[in-house]
Specification:
Helices cover about 30% and strands about 20% of the residues. The chain is globular. It contains 7 helices and 17 strands. The strands form 5 sheets. Strands 3, 6, 8, 9, 10, 11, 13 and 14 form an 8-stranded antiparallel β-sheet that branches. Strands 2-1-17 form a 3-stranded antiparallel β-sheet, with no helix packed on it. It has 3 domains: about 40 residues; about 80 residues, no CATH class; about 180 residues, Glucose Permease (Domain IIA), CATH 2.70.70. The N terminus is likely disordered. The relative contact order is 0.16. Helix 2 runs antiparallel to helix 3 and helix 2 crosses helix 7. It is an alpha+beta fold and about 350 residues long.
Length: about 350
């Protein structure tokens, strides 16, 4: 009898333990399922910005593509290399500014605090004298990485284009072909703005995070310009960025994010999601919207344009916790050389570019 009682107790204990195990597994599975559901719901919102919290997106870890870029060439480096590229177009030997900057980055390990003018001088002279860049970098382990990374940043910046001479003249001869910057400052010509290198500064609304864009302080209503030609991938309200626009370059490598646009009339009348825009088009107006889950609210203390540039080497990076955002301070200084003149349409109350442009194939 004693043995039978022990067996019964053992069976009861085993049965209860089995029920507990089944319950634990059941609730664990449901917990994971709902957690995944919450992630999916959150990632449905457009999130291309340091201003927006992003949940992790599943990626293929076996894919080989660039996952990190720190772009820190100074304005002086960018300007010198660009000018050498432009001047060389009329010569037999062409200088490629991206190759020049990538070569210097490979020498400095990406740290342009080590930059010396004589390093650029020697490289340019060697190239002008016929030395091939491939020969100079044949022993470099870093050059190919920097060339690909910097090509993603600057690839759409220099090239051939035609610009109107006179906005009133529709004649086919009213166009001048040029080679140079075919991208523009995000702030229209004659409209004042100021800025400083604020990349990485702390932000606390919603959650603690670094500032992964660049702020241009300008008056409310200042026309915002499309830096580069591309396709509008996102528009509308986001609680962090307020009224915003996201534009993808045609080569898919660059995603430009313009945020905190004006209350009530944030966008140019012609702008809509899915439409293509030309470099230099007016796309919207500076404001101070954002930091609110309620639409059309001014919760930013000072009117300004937040502009961000995300690099995309693989679509899995597009909305993830591993997005690559670039410090735009030096680039914005460079783009001040190319600001778009605008005129106001009193009927629509929109600003429009004064001179049209045709981007030519390189």
């Amino acid at each position: 009898m004693f043995v039978i009682r022990i067996k019964k107790r053992f069976i009861i204990i085993l049965f209860l333990a089995l029920i507990a195990l089944i319950a634990t597994v059941y609730f664990s599975i449901n917990s994971v399922f709902f957690a995944d559901s919450n992630v999916n719901e959150e990632t449905k919102t457009e999130s291309h910005s340091e201003d927006e919290k992003v949940e992790p997106k599943e990626t293929n870890k076996n894919k080989k593509f660039i996952k990190y870029v720190e772009f820190n060439p100074t304005y002086e480096v960018l300007e010198r290399a660009m000018n050498e590229d432009i001047k060389s177009q009329e010569k037999d030997i062409k200088i490629n500014w991206i190759e020049v900057i990538a070569y210097l980055a490979s020498v400095y390990g990406g740290d342009f605090k080590k930059y010396k003018n004589e390093d650029m001088d020697k490289l340019i002279n060697d190239l002008k004298n016929g030395e091939n860049i491939d020969n100079k970098v044949k022993n470099s382990k870093l050059y190919s990485y920097y060339k690909e990374a910097y090509s993603a940043v600057l690839g759409g910046f220099l090239g051939k284009y035609k610009i109107q001479k006179n906005p009133e003249d529709k004649d086919s001869n009213n166009w001048e072909e040029k080679y140079g910057l075919k991208v523009f400052s995000p702030i229209a010509k004659t409209f004042p703005f100021c800025h400083y290198d604020d990349f990485g500064a702390s932000r606390s609304y919603g959650y603690s995070r670094p500032h992964l864009g660049h702020d241009l302080m300008a008056a409310t209503g200042t026309p915002v310009i499309a830096v580069e030609s591309g396709t509008i991938e996102a528009m509308g309200w986001n609680q962090y960025g307020g009224w915003r626009i996201g534009i993808r370059s045609f080569d898919k490598k660059r995603y430009y994010y313009y945020a905190h646009l004006r209350q009530n009339k944030p966008y140019h009348t012609d702008i809509e999601e899915g439409k293509t825009v030309k470099a230099g088009d007016v796309i919207g107006y500076v404001g101070r919207t954002g930091y609110s889950s309620k639409e059309n609210v001014n919760n930013i203390s000072q009117s300004h344009l937040h502009i961000g540039l995300e690099l995309i080497f693989d679509e899995s990076q597009k909305e993830s916790n591993n997005e690559i955002w670039v410090d735009l301070y030096a680039i914005t200084k460079l783009l001040e050389k190319n600001r778009v003149a605008v005129i106001r349409d009193n009927h629509t109350k929109d600003y429009n570019r004064k001179l049209d442009i045709h981007i030519l194939e390189d």
